[in-house]
From TrEMBL, chain A:
<feature type="domain" description="DNA-directed RNA polymerase RpoA/D/Rpb3-type">
    <location>
        <begin position="70"/>
        <end position="359"/>
    </location>
</feature>
<dbReference type="Pfam" id="PF01000">
    <property type="entry name" value="RNA_pol_A_bac"/>
</dbReference>
<dbReference type="GO" id="GO:0000428">
    <property type="term" value="C:DNA-directed RNA polymerase complex"/>
</dbReference>
<keyword id="KW-0804">Transcription</keyword>
<comment type="similarity">
    <text>Belongs to the archaeal Rpo3/eukaryotic RPB3 RNA polymerase subunit family.</text>
</comment>
<dbReference type="InterPro" id="IPR033901">
    <property type="entry name" value="RNAPI/III_AC40"/>
</dbReference>
<dbReference type="InterPro" id="IPR001514">
    <property type="entry name" value="DNA-dir_RNA_pol_30-40kDasu_CS"/>
</dbReference>
<dbReference type="InterPro" id="IPR011263">
    <property type="entry name" value="DNA-dir_RNA_pol_RpoA/D/Rpb3"/>
</dbReference>
<keyword id="KW-0240">DNA-directed RNA polymerase</keyword>
Automatic annotation (TrEMBL), chain B:
<keyword id="KW-0804">Transcription</keyword>
<comment type="similarity">
    <text>Belongs to the archaeal Rpo11/eukaryotic RPB11/RPC19 RNA polymerase subunit family.</text>
</comment>
<dbReference type="InterPro" id="IPR008193">
    <property type="entry name" value="RNA_pol_Rpb11_13-16kDa_CS"/>
</dbReference>
<protein>
    <submittedName>
        <fullName>DNA-directed RNA polymerase</fullName>
    </submittedName>
</protein>
<dbReference type="InterPro" id="IPR033898">
    <property type="entry name" value="RNAP_AC19"/>
</dbReference>
<dbReference type="InterPro" id="IPR009025">
    <property type="entry name" value="RBP11-like_dimer"/>
</dbReference>
<feature type="region of interest" description="Disordered">
    <location>
        <begin position="90"/>
        <end position="112"/>
    </location>
</feature>
<feature type="domain" description="DNA-directed RNA polymerase RBP11-like dimerisation">
    <location>
        <begin position="17"/>
        <end position="87"/>
    </location>
</feature>
<keyword id="KW-0240">DNA-directed RNA polymerase</keyword>
Length: 360, 112
């Protein structure tokens, strides 16, 4: 890593290694904690307190993969406390819009009302949460906090074919003018929502105010059965219910490193390593053993870990992980692109700190 | 949404437990990190008394140079600075990635 030298605090080499790396062993990992206390290196006259300028020069972000749904990036130079806070916010606190209330008019399918309602809630809807307010429990539904969908399907027989025997998510019809049953749902719009659909240009071929995926199977019908319902979607967060979570999942792992501790690896050990992890270990032209980037050989890493059980191997190979290098992956449900999600997570973390500071 | 309550309000307290409502490990652990990074903080830790109660207790004890509230305010500022800087770095990284992808696409089209 390029920043290695810069980040080093002038500690003795063995301490520096304990500070920056988790040392992986066959049955236990060592030096897993981060040294966060400001005074931890005081006996060595080394300051470990927070330093914004140092943070700014150390922080690196490198995007490895980015598309509409998945993103992988390297987040280098932060503490697990921050990386984990961001992960937790992505899972539980970035808002989306999902179906919350279902008003059944008729349901003669074999699926019970509550089961169907639950399934409807889990359908990701491409609705921009920024355009809506959170609906408080005591608040009446209105165009500011509710999106109304209608589902009206009846299964019929046409010759030998069945029409509408599968009820899929694309059958959910958006009702920009609001509820058709204002008496029952107490949902009254004073103005329509048609203007909330982004312009053709901004849509980029995606359908807005509709389910992200058209082909989610909600239930099946037999001829004569029908479903008529109105579904009201509201804004919420994953902490309340996972249906509002904007990510399929979001996770990180530490950057793995495998290092040879000596140049002269005994031939028997070299052979074992080459057999166990070909590609990770290679032979240089001069016949000596060399190790390549561990990151690209993740399948072999657990094999290396097991081999560390043998004294002869543990003496020449070290398997370790950088404590401040996170390989972060965000899998969006498709409602919002993953880079937008991470930006929102950061601003939510910022707002949390600001709100607390204002209360002090 | 966060509601902070100090057991004792005055600013000259060096050991204070802050009860932060409607927050969890997300904020408490981040603050604990920044508080520990403050050389004037002699102890800092947090606990969640019960998983179904939405609150955390954050204990801050200082060495006497600054008050506990001041230490917590500083931690909040540090957290804000860190997230602001991470945001701008992230946006730059995404922009760079988009440009790289675009160049690659153009090169592929030219080759075809």
């Amino acid at each position: 890593m390029g920043g290695d030298k810069k980040r080093s605090k002038g500690l003795p080499e063995y301490l520096e290694l304990q500070r920056t790396h988790v040392h992986c062993g066959p049955d236990v990992n060592k030096h897993t904690t981060t040294f966060t206390s400001a005074n931890v290196f005081e006996p060595l006259c080394i300051d470990n307190s927070w330093n914004l300028e140092a943070f700014k020069s150390d922080l690196q972000i490198e995007v490895n993969h980015l598309d509409d749904e998945v993103m992988e990036f390297d987040l280098i130079g932060v503490d697990p406390a921050i990386a984990n806070a961001l992960r937790r916010i992505l899972l539980a606190e970035v808002p989306t819009v999902a179906i919350e209330h279902v008003f059944m008019i008729n349901n003669t399918s074999i699926m019970q009302d509550e089961v169907l309602s639950h399934r409807l809630g889990l359908v990701p809807l491409r609705v921009d949460p920024k355009l809506f307010d959170f609906k408080l429990a005591e608040e009446a539904p209105s165009e500011k906090n509710t999106v109304v969908f209608k589902l009206d399907v009846r299964c019929t027989r046409q010759g030998t074919r069945l029409i509408n025997d599968k009820v899929t998510s694309n059958m959910l019809q958006w009702m920009p003018a609001g509820s058709q049953l204002p008496e029952e749902t107490s949902c009254r719009f004073t103005q329509g929502q048609a203007h909330l659909v982004p312009s053709q240009q901004e849509q980029k071929g995606k359908k807005f105010m509709a389910p992200v995926h058209e082909d989610i199977l909600l239930t099946k019908l037999r001829p004569g059965q029908c479903i008529q319902l109105e579904a009201h979607a509201v804004k919420g967060i994953g902490k309340t219910h996972a249906k509002w979570s904007p990510v399929a999942t979001a996770w990180y792992k530490l950057l793995p490193e495998v290092v040879l501790l000596t140049d002269d690896v005994p031939e028997s050990v070299a052979k074992t390593l080459l057999d166990a992890a070909p590609g990770l270990f290679v032979r240089k032209p001069d016949g000596k053993l060399a190790v390549t980037n561990a990151r690209h050989h993740e399948k072999h890493l657990e094999k290396v870990r097991v081999l560390l059980d043998q004294e002869a191997i543990a003496q020449v190979v070290q398997y370790r992980k950088r404590k401040d290098h996170f390989i972060f992956t965000i899998e969006s449900t498709g409602i919002l692109p993953p880079d937008v999600l991470f930006e929102q997570a950061l601003s939510i973390l910022h707002d949390k700190a600001e709100q607390l500071a204002n209360k002090l | 949404m966060a509601q902070a309550m100090e057991e004792d309000v005055p600013d000259q307290f060096f050991g204070t437990t802050f009860q932060i409502d409607e927050e969890d490990h997300t904020l408490a652990n981040s603050l604990r990190f920044f508080l520990n990074k403050n050389p004037h903080v002699s102890f800092c830790g947090y606990s969640m008394p019960h998983p179904s109660e939405e609150l955390v207790n954050l204990r801050v004890q200082t060495s006497g140079r600054i008050s506990a509230s001041k230490a917590l305010r500083t931690a909040c500022e540090d957290l804000k600075d860190a997230s602001n800087h991470t945001l701008s770095t992230f946006q730059k990284a995404v922009k760079a990635k988009r440009e790289r992808d675009q160049q690659q696409q153009q090169q592929q089209q030219q080759q075809q």
